[in-house]
TrEMBL record:
Record keywords, A-Z: Hydrolase
UniProt feature coiled coil, ranges: none
UniProt KW Hydrolase keyword: yes
Protein name stated in the entry: Predicted phosphohydrolase or phosphomutase, AlkP superfamily
Pfam families cross-referenced by the UniProt entry: Phosphodiest
A GO molecular function held by the record: hydrolase activity
Organism: Halogranum amylolyticum
């Protein structure tokens, strides 16, 4: 391979990658390639955004802008009080690869979240997480090529989270298979398209923490497999520059779960109801996606609507499940109170009749039911500032049972978001203290409980840069998620967008930004509804 044929830049995305995880694995000599990348160049923690969750953070990384500019805040988007799972068409700003395409640079992008349907560029795009199991890829026919070349290619595991019919060993085999698929797909497409820019993302490095509560042996297996695939890519293509980045960190949650809507109900802001679709989530759609159905939202079935009606008369799924457990019949709780029936037959927020509420925990905030903005808004514009100020004061005063502040910050949304889509954000941002406190949007009784998940996201991820033109001695300790896109473009000698919120990190020479055309949706957006929502709870996000 001549120098001209080498890839200009490779970005390796490691979901949830962070120094605390890496350093333990260094001691086990489990990730030699990742360690070499971090120690041979400029590296340090990468501060994530608020909210630090996959569907919002990866778009922020690959566009270089905050959610107020790209428009994606969480797993779901809203039409009034109804919701659907987000897709690539919801990201309203140019990606790195689309900007490079405008400069005649080609790209291969594999498994990056929230990229379905794919953009049409010189190169190839294979969408990942939050897309359907059989995603539309670019160019057309790419998925069939991959399956012929690799034998199989899937976005998601063969099994649903919580499936007890498989052993942990079988599940870990599936994890490793998915990791190998990412590396194999990228190598095949990079050889075929000879891209200037490559971007391969590994998702299972995050999911293993959610599903197996940080089990060290299982985490090590996933990271060993990921490191091996990274090594194969580097050996085969010898990129001129290599960047490593994560959307957030990962660590234990050792404090409390705070049930925000239960608190807001007692303070007179939340009204509740029984029945309906349940709280906004991609959980009810995850199995539909895996089975290839073409959905991005969910409506209750006849059985689920009957359960919702029964709930209005007191026969809730919670009561059914509690009764079975008291009789020692835990094994049939799922049979008689399956997940989607539980959603419809449990107490939940009555969004149209509430003054303020938490829609989904991963939004990290409270939304006000504002007249003129929400379909049945009950808070007038004249009351808005007063209601928001009252809520901020109340929430700033919340302390855990140990007497610690629940929140590190309680702030108006404009302190975190700005842009044409800032109105889609929560009105009040809630930042849990040290990200050791867990938030819940469910109405379950009591303000505090042990965290639903014992391992979850932290703000500090990882950034590393090494190779030609990279100053390995540069201080990148204050790197932010928004800095990744402009830094990579500058390293390639390409002007980044002047709409980007990030800066070029000192590890590379700066370039002057340029003004690019405003983002416009392509004709492919009409093809986005390819069955996304049934998978997300499988991975433990909502």
């Amino acid at each position: 391979m001549t120098d001209d044929d080498r890839m200009d830049a490779l970005l390796v995305g490691i979901d949830a990658g962070c120094l605390p995880v890496f350093e333990r694995l260094y001691e086990e000599e489990a990730i030699p390639n990742i360690r070499e990348l971090c120690e041979s160049g400029a590296s340090g923690p990468l501060e994530s955004q608020i909210p630090p969750w996959t569907p919002s953070a990866w778009p922020s990384m690959y566009t270089g802008v905050n959610p107020g500019k790209h428009g994606v805040y969480g797993f779901v988007d809203y039409d009034g009080y109804d919701w659907r799972v987000v897709g690539g068409e919801d990201v309203k700003e140019h990606s790195i690869w689309s900007l490079l395409d405008q400069h005649g640079k080609s790209s291969v992008v594999v498994n990056v979240p929230v990229t379905h349907p794919p953009e049409e560029i010189d190169g190839a795009v294979v969408p990942g997480f939050i897309g359907p199991e059989d995603p539309q890829c670019h160019p057309e026919g790419t998925l069939d090529e991959l399956r012929e070349e690799l034998g199989e290619y899937r976005v998601y595991p063969k099994y649903a989270r919580g499936d007890d019919s498989l052993s942990d060993e079988a599940k870990m085999d599936e994890y490793e298979t998915l990791v190998r698929m990412r590396g194999g797909a990228f190598r095949y497409l990079a050889e075929k398209h000879e891209p200037d820019f490559g971007f391969v993302q590994f998702q299972k490095t995050d999911t293993v923490f959610h599903e197996f509560e940080g089990d060290e042996e299982k985490v090590e297996r996933v990271y060993r497999a990921t490191d091996d695939e990274i090594g194969k890519i580097i050996e085969e293509f010898d990129p001129k520059r290599i960047f490593v980045a994560s959307d957030h960190g990962m660590g234990p949650y050792e404090k409390y779960e705070f049930r925000a809507n239960e608190y807001l109900r007692d303070k007179g802001f939340v009204k509740t109801t029984k029945g309906g679709k349940g709280m906004p989530s991609w959980n009810p759609i995850r199995n539909q996606l895996r089975e290839g159905e073409d959905e991005d939202t969910w409506e209750p079935s006849t059985t689920e609507r009957i359960a919702a009606s029964a709930a209005k008369f007191g026969l809730t799924a919670d009561r059914v499940g509690h009764g079975l457990r008291k009789l020692g019949l835990d094994s049939i709780v799922k049979q008689y109170a399956p997940e989607n029936i539980t959603r419809t037959a449990s107490e939940q927020v009555d969004f149209p009749n509430s003054k303020a509420y938490m829609r989904a925990r991963t939004e990290l905030g409270v939304r006000i039911n504002l007249e003129g903005r929400e379909p049945n808004g009950v808070v007038s514009e004249a009351e808005y500032d007063e209601v928001r100020a009252e809520l901020i004061e109340l929430l700033r005063g919340v302390s855990t049972p140990d007497g610690d502040p629940m929140f590190e910050d309680v702030a108006p949304r404009e302190e975190y978001f700005h842009g044409p889509y800032d109105d889609k954000a929560v009105d009040i941002v809630l930042v849990p203290n040290d990200f050791e406190q867990f938030l819940s949007a469910h109405v379950l009784g009591g303000y505090f409980a042990p965290p639903t998940e014992t391992w979850n996201h932290k703000l500090a991820g990882i950034f590393a840069a090494t190779g030609e033109g990279i100053d390995a001695t540069a201080d990148v300790s204050d790197a932010h998620l928004f800095d990744v896109a402009p830094t990579i473009m500058a390293a390639m000698g390409i002007p980044y967008s002047d709409r980007m919120d990030g800066r070029v990190l000192p590890a590379v020479d700066d370039v002057d930004p340029d003004t690019y055309p405003e983002y416009e949706s392509s004709d492919t957006t009409a093809l986005a509804d390819d069955g996304v929502e049934d998978r997300l709870a499988d991975l433990g996000y909502l």
